[in-house]
Amino acid sequence: MKILVCFKVVPDLDAMRQEDWVAEDLAVDVSFLPREWNSFDESALETALRLADASGGHQLSAVSIGGSLLNPFFKTLAALKFDEVFRIELDGDLRFSPGRIAALLAAFIRREQFDVVLCGRQSGVGDNAQTPLILTEMLGLPCITQAAEVHPAPENSLRVISRVEGGLLEQRIRPPCILTIGDTQSTYLRIPTLKDRMQYGKRPVTVIDARELEQDSDADSDAGYHAGLSSPRAQPRLVKLEPVDNRRAGVVIDTGTPQEKARLLYERYLQERLS
Amino acid sequence: MSDVSREQIAEDLKSLAAADRVVTDPLVLKESSIDRFRRYEGYHGVFLKPFPAAVVYVKSAEEVSAILKYAGAHKLNVVPRTGQSATEGGLETALENSIVIDGSRMDEIIKIDTYNMQATVQCGVPLQKLDELLREKGFTTGHSPQSKPLAQLGGLTATRSIGQFSTLYGGIEDMIVGLEAVFPNGQISRIKNVPRRAAGPDIRHIAIGSEGTLCFITEVTVKIFPFFPDNYVFLGYLLDDMDTGFRILRDVMAAGYKPSVARLYDGPDGSYHFSHFSEDKCVLIFVAEGPKPLADATAQAIRDITAGYPIYKTVAPKLIDRWFAQLNWDPSNIEEEKREIMELNNICNTTEISADWSTIHSIYEVCIKRIADEIPDLTLLGGHSSHSYLNGTNLYFVYFYNVVDCEPQEELTKYHLPIKKIIVEETIKAGGSMCHHHGVGKHRTAWIEDEYGSSYYMLKTLKEAFDPEGIMNMGTIFPLED
Ligand SMILES: Cc1cc2nc3c(=O)[nH]c(=O)nc-3n(C[C@H](O)[C@H](O)[C@H](O)COP(=O)(O)OP(=O)(O)OC[C@H]3O[C@@H](n4cnc5c(N)ncnc54)[C@H](O)[C@@H]3O)c2cc1C
């Protein structure tokens, strides 16, 4: 199976100070922040590796859109033995452009013909949660959302367990398909050894010019409809940023022995919540 | 060997401190038998050290005195502790039926004296709490170890800790003006707070760095400094190699400038911290602070000195400023690290040493080469210098490894200890010190005589004199006799 993981690298917004959010014309500067895997995409990458561990014969690829800042992340994936890594070269603010991202990915996926496409379900920056769904629409493929586990199954199919309200849903799906990865059990991407970094980490990144892919999308048979999905007018627009007041009321129990404090905590605050 | 049972010890302690402050909960005892050195084992539910008989939360020097006298009478090992952020095994209960004396509830800020520029606190005051209070008043302790949100003044003193701003403010040994400590025979001794003295040897240093092996520290008085957060100047550079970085650090120090922060990261450690700008280069950082004319002049001098060296790139100050704000570890970082360790079977450990300017670079090179050649499953190997002095600097080796094909209890013997051995042996061979700021703990004791050479006589005599019964944190600093 040819498996592709679409991933995004995001700034670590926890490192922002309140004052950093204040910006004229809403152009909040995040260029000084450390970068990290988008958490759902990190789970998607690990899920792909586990699928490859569980059954051989897969070809693993990963793709992201952006500039050369992504290179250290690609090196890590190469060291983890992803067979091919692709960077769609495009600088610019794509935070609120799920349609445009999906169009680029769709053109790329059509070109390379993958069987299974894994995407994190959403990115913390922009928080659109739309890219994989628009991508599904554009490619006309079946999609399972909120996958938590993906296992090999007989007859070249996959067993996908996803979280639904009140429980777990198990489904069988035959590729080609798209899976969006939600809350998985293991959220971190494994770490390559220095030896693997030396041996595999230098594998070159295939860089693709975004304009080439955009020309491809124009040739797509449903071009008109899909252009609508990715047109700037269809994109969410940032209109306002407002701080959230995260303060919560609190009570300090500071009288009595630890046993008495525990009893007070239980009787006054926990009992009714637990029953 | 002690003549009392665990149960009896707990009972007896209840008559020496309030009963509700004597804890014998099995979970607490288990977790009190180790510190972060054995966290991989601990997270996997493996506890190999004897569990203490009880943990007792003390409230006064008199209680400590009574408990130490009791321990001495029954030859019971005592492990002092406060913030529990120790990294080198200092909190491991090496002997059966130990008593853990926890000073964290002695947490009163006794006096902040802004005229005489000193603050007196009990041993269990968290450094973060003291420093926040001081900052509200326009002052600071100047002490900022990465564990500031975790560590307390007793432990910080007992380990000879050092903070990120040490190049200006010094280590804890430069900050403490006086203290109170309780000795194994029950003696409560106070060292008064004076600007300086020449009345014999400086006995503050019997307590500072003693790691719980000579006395229990109950109170300390530290210097305070005016706080000028608005005057910080951040400087950052990317360099092609560590040697250039060490030479710049040396020139800044030798010229007499005192930036508060002077840090040099090698490529791998630099990429780990600064992936967004380091480009796999070495990263050199300075912070100048203090009264504005001084901060500005210091920053300008550093710019002038670095201009004489091949600099790959200058880094925007904001990149450094925001990184600093994220550097310290609080309990949430500890929890997150635990999740990562359990999920990935990947763990980070460190060893910190110091040496003079002539030898530091060769120690760095030989250690990195040997570790890379000899140790399997490494996922990151690097280091940084974070505390510089007139005559040399420190090196903080950082290593991550995947724990592969071994039981939790083999993690230390397969990875961490062999790495530590390489670093310690190479450092001592080159004339450096095997411990820069975490203390000896229980896992560098094999080299303590090599570290001291002929002066080991002086160190050993302190132990024999102050702790003749051998009850104070046995196995720490001084190896246990078989
Ligand atoms: C994430 C992290 C970052 C760290 N960063 C730094 C750093 O930047 N700089 C640095 O120097 N250290 C650092 N450390 C190490 C550690 O925080 C320090 O050694 C600190 O001084 C320990 O203080 P504590 O209150 O936690 O002491 P504990 O962990 O409770 O004890 C440490 C040692 O001191 C002894 N001790 C504790 N209290 C007393 C007392 N009242 N009387 C006598 N002996 C006592 C104990 O027996 C033990 O040997 C770091 C640790 C962690 C986990």
Structural summary, described in words:
- The complex is a heterodimer of chains A (275) and B (482).
- Chain A has eight helices and eleven strands.
- Chain A is α/β, with parallel strands linked by helices and 275 residues long.
- In chain A, the strands form two sheets. Chain A has a nine-stranded mixed beta sheet, with helices on both faces.
- In chain A, strand 7 and strand 8 form a beta hairpin.
- In chain A, helix 2 packs across helix 5 and helix 3 packs across helix 4.
- The radius of gyration of chain A is 22 Å and the shape is globular.
- Chain B has 482 residues and is an alpha+beta fold.
- Chain B has four domains: 99 residues, 2-Layer Sandwich (Uridine Diphospho-n-acetylenolpyruvylglucosamine Reductase, domain 2), CATH 3.30.43.10; 118 residues, Uridine Diphospho-n-acetylenolpyruvylglucosamine Reductase, domain 3; 96 residues, Alpha-Beta Plaits (2-Layer Sandwich), CATH 3.30.70.3450; 109 residues, GMP Synthetase, Chain A, domain 3 (2-Layer Sandwich).
- Chain B has 18 helices and 18 strands.
- A seven-stranded antiparallel beta sheet of chain B has the order 15-12-14-13-17-18-16, sandwiched between helices.
- In chain B, strand 8 and strand 9 form a beta hairpin.
- The radius of gyration of chain B is 22 Å and the shape is globular.
- Chains A and B meet through loops of A and helix 13, helix 14 and strand 17 of B.
- The structure holds flavin-adenine dinucleotide.
- Flavin-adenine dinucleotide binds next to strand 3, helix 6 and strand 10 of chain B.
